[in-house]
């Protein structure tokens, strides 16, 4: 690609080139760091947005990877600047990291806009960091490349392979059933997360980094490389080299994240057995790029895309490390062939089709051919009905097929705490046919849209050997979760969605093949209940939460802040002074 930028037209030149007092100040401050003029004059400034934190154990290796990126930037003649960013960790943040995805997006956009950067390397991976960084950088609009943290190694205990999240729930149910002694439980605890890197099931982290890869925002296949593999270091340095070239080529994200790229990302998500969270983030990311991706688009793609990544939790046997050895995301995308828009532009400056040339599957039990899928349809289905007029999500491949069509009485909980207390009560009046319902767990009600949607099976049923039942909520669930869980009911109950009107004992009917979720209650009765319904009190009285409550959109819209969406007001220009 021919260079379009020159040293004089770099964005950073506005800060450093003029012979005036402001620029003198900027240059003298770089010299404070020990740099000489020849270190930075006329070179592309590359921001390395790094979400390292000791509270983000998935990104433990980022301290070293920053050095690899810097090495690459310097080799290519750029000037690297390390900019630590909000870490948004999944493991420790209460009530939920989702409350802060948009905060990271705002920080990313504003840090880019306000600083002398010509291009950015976005370092993320743990669930919300991928959409947060990408959303912000899309709005900022300068060249960017995404550096995915990579999955951690397989878990291991006593010769058994352990998968992040999924096996934690599984072993926990066995422990609740009285089948796991302390020593074994401790062994699982110490073996389930044994290296730096993101959850190594096809949870939200692996789903979202695969989505960034499929959108053309990472070096080809970068999302599959395990965090501690030396390939990951080489990929990091290559990101540093490539972003400098992207600046000269003026390869901005609006040329990459097009309609075709968003579609590619959605198809790949479906084929990988993606986390249910993909829906919310994908819609939000697409909308930042001005692409109007909807729940119905995702359902349509889900119906025609077979699930071919045999990776837990939707797949049976393997984890991300196996997926990498089997050829990784490039191999999976190669299988999808011309279902994808192969003409889509990517960060390499080449098309997706060119990036996939030569990709191969090395283990066709891990990455299946289209003719032998793990599941005949894609990962997600969108439901509608009088319980969820604006939609709800289910992951058919991850639930017992006997629940695909199910009718049963509702057992309704108004809060997570109430549910937690009741669920371990051995005398709880519940049968395997009941439908467990949790409400006030959506974007506003949670608050922040927590991952409470895989409601625990009541203890009395666990003891009888039951391990799945139909559960519905306006919450999300972890990408590593599984089971017959209907999620993201929109509008949520907290804002008066019909879920707020449901009562214990009402009959609920799920018909997955027909994509419907209904409560068998008459319109007349629902109208009567609506009159009795009272708006709950505010969740936040001040601060970030207060702002969040006023501006977050519902699940079907991607839960972005309304004022950050593309098309809300005029695009901010460059700072003028
Ligand atoms: Fe970080 Fe799962 S906790 S990716
Ligand atoms: Mg998660």
What's the short version?
The chain has 577 residues and is an alpha/beta fold. Helix content is 35%, strand content 11%.
Structure description:
With 577 residues, the protein is an alpha/beta fold. It contains 20 helices and 14 strands. The chain has helices at residues 13-16, 21-32, 37-40, 62-75, 101-114, 129-140, 166-176, 182-191, 204-214, 230-249, 259-272, 277-288, 295-304, 320-325, 328-336, 352-356, 416-423, 459-463, 523-532, 543-551, and strands at residues 45-50, 79-84, 119-124, 144-148, 155-157, 160-162, 381-383, 392-394, 405-413, 435-438, 471-473, 485-486, 507-511, 516-519. The strands form 4 sheets. A 6-stranded mixed beta sheet has the order 12-11-10-9-13-14. Strands 2-1-3-4 form a 4-stranded parallel beta sheet, sandwiched between helices. Strands 5-6 form a two-stranded antiparallel ribbon. Helix 6 links the parallel strand 3 and strand 4. The longest helix is centred in the middle third of the chain and has 20 residues, at 230-249. The radius of gyration is 24 Å and the shape is globular. Bound molecules: FE2/S2 (inorganic) cluster and magnesium ion. FE2/S2 (inorganic) cluster (FES) binds at residues 58, 90-91, 126-127, 164, 198-199, 203, 205.
């Amino acid at each position: 690609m021919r260079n379009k930028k020159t040293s004089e037209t770099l964005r950073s030149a506005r800060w450093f080139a003029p012979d005036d007092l402001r620029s003198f100040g900027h240059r003298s401050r770089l010299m404070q760091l020990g740099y000489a003029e020849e270190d930075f004059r006329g070179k592309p400034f590359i921001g390395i947005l790094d979400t390292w934190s000791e509270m983000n154990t998935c990104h433990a290796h980022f301290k070293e990877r920053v050095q690899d990126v810097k090495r690459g930037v310097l080799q290519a003649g750029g000037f690297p600047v390390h900019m630590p960013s909000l870490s948004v960790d999944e493991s420790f943040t209460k009530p939920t990291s989702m409350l802060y995805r948009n905060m990271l997006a705002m920080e990313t956009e504003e840090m880019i806009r306000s600083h002398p950067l010509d291009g950015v390397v976005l370092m993320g991976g743990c669930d919300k960091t991928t959409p947060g960084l990408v959303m912000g950088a899309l709005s900022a609009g300068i060249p960017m490349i995404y550096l995915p943290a990579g999955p951690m190694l397989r878990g291991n205990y006593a010769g058994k392979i352990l998968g992040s999240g999924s096996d934690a729930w599984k072993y926990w149910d066995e422990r609740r059933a009285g089948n796991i002694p302390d020593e074994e439980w401790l062994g699982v605890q110490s073996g389930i997360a044994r290296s730096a890197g993101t959850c190594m099931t096809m949870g939200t982290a692996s789903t979202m980094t695969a989505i960034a890869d499929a959108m053309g925002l990472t070096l080809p296949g970068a999302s599959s490389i395990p965090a501690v593999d030396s390939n990951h270091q080489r990929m990091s340095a290559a990101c540093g080299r490539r972003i400098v070239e992207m600046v000269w080529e003026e390869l901005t994200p609006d040329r990459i994240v097009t309609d075709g790229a968003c579609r590619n990302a959605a198809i790949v998500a479906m084929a990988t057995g993606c986390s249910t969270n993909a829906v919310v983030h994908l819609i939000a990311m697409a909308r930042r790029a001005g692409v109007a991706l909807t729940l119905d688009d995702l359902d349509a793609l889900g119906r025609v895309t077979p699930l071919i990544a045999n990776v837990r939790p939707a797949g049976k046997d393997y984890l991300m490390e196996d997926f990498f050895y089997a050829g990784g995301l490039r191999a999976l995308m190669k299988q999808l062939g011309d279902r994808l828009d192969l003409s889509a532009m990517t960060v390499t400056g080449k098309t997706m089709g060119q990036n996939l040339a030569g990709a191969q599957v090395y283990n066709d039990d891990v990455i299946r051919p289209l003719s032998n899928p793990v599941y005949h349809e894609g990962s997600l289905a969108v439901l509608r009905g009088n319980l969820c007029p604006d939609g709800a999500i289910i992951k058919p491949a991850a639930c017992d097929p006997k629940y695909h069509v199910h009718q049963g009485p509702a057992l309704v909980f108004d809060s997570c705490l109430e549910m937690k207390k009741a669920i371990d009560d051995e005398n709880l009046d519940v049968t395997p046919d009941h439908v467990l319902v949790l409400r006030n767990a959506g974007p506003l009600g949670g608050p922040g849209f927590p991952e409470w949607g895989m409601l625990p099976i009541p203890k009395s049923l666990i003891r009888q050997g039951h391990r799945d039942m139909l559960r519905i909520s306006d919450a999300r669930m972890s990408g590593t979760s599984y089971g017959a869980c209907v999620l993201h009911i929109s509008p949520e109950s907290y804002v008066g969605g019909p879920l707020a009107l449901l009562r214990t004992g009402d009959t609920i009917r799920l018909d997955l093949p027909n994509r419907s979720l209904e409560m068998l209650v008459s319109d007349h009765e629902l109208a009567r209940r609506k009159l009795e319904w009272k708006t709950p009190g505010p969740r936040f009285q001040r601060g970030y939460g207060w702002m969040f409550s006023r501006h977050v959109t519902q699940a079907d819209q991607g839960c972005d802040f309304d004022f950050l969406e593309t098309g809300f007001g005029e695009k901010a220009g460059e700072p003028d002074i």
